[in-house]
Amino acid sequence: MQNDRQEQAAAFTHFDNQGNAVMVDVGSKADTLREAVAEGYITMSRVCFEKVQAGAMGKGDVLGVARIAGIMGAKRTSELIPLCHILNLASVEIGFTMLPEQCSIRAVCTARTVGKTGVEMEALTGVNLALLTVYDMCKAVDKKMEMGHIRLLAKTGGKSGEFKAEEKR
Predict the structure, then answer these.
(1) Which of 2, 25, 54, 167 fits a 20 to 30 Å CA distance from 66?
(2) Contact predicate 37/109, CB 8 Å
(3) What is the pLDDT of residue 169?
């Protein structure tokens, strides 16, 4: 049983040979330009969607505040996710697309750095915090909003090379 656990742990980079959680040592890796793009959606009632679109939500500029929250969230990823490296982010961008037919908002986060490890978690965290902020600012109008379809769209840099997600399922 102990040997099985040790063999399984050795297959994962965040565990040592005894199965203890560790932060991956990236000290010997070369710095490379790295970028990650993630997306997510929030769906809401027609009334709520129209208020956001018109800038008429009582708490203020929903998407402006959500953009700042997403950027701040991406910058603090290492404080939120255990074993995640602290990164010196070169850039974080949050964009929104209004989708009137679905009463949805698509959030996209792009994170960039020059470093030894990727920025996928930062991009995913940025999207999540942006969507959570939209929810927080709109919950007085619609508590039934749904967030989902959060995923990594693309990443570049590092030993594993490029990744591009398939078209939406």
Answers:
(1) 167
(2) yes
(3) 56
Please identify every residue annotated as catalytic.
136
Please give the sequence-ordered ranges of beta strands (E in DSSP) within 5-162, or none if there are none. Answer: 32-43, 89-99, 104-115, 146-156
Token pair 């099985």: residue: 4
CA-wise closest residue to 32 among 156, 141, 149:
156
Task: Supply angle C-alpha 122, 80, 133, rounded to 5.
Answer: 70
Confidence of residue 82 (pLDDT cuts 50, 70, 90): confident
Residue 113 has pLDDT above 60, yes or no: yes
Does 77 have pLDDT greater than 60?
yes
Instruction: For residues 104 and 124, give the distance between their C-alpha atoms in angstroms, rounded to a whole number.
Output: 18
What pTM, to 2 d.p., does this model score?
0.85
Asked if residue 36 lies in contact with residue 118, where contact means CB atoms within 8 angstroms, the answer is yes
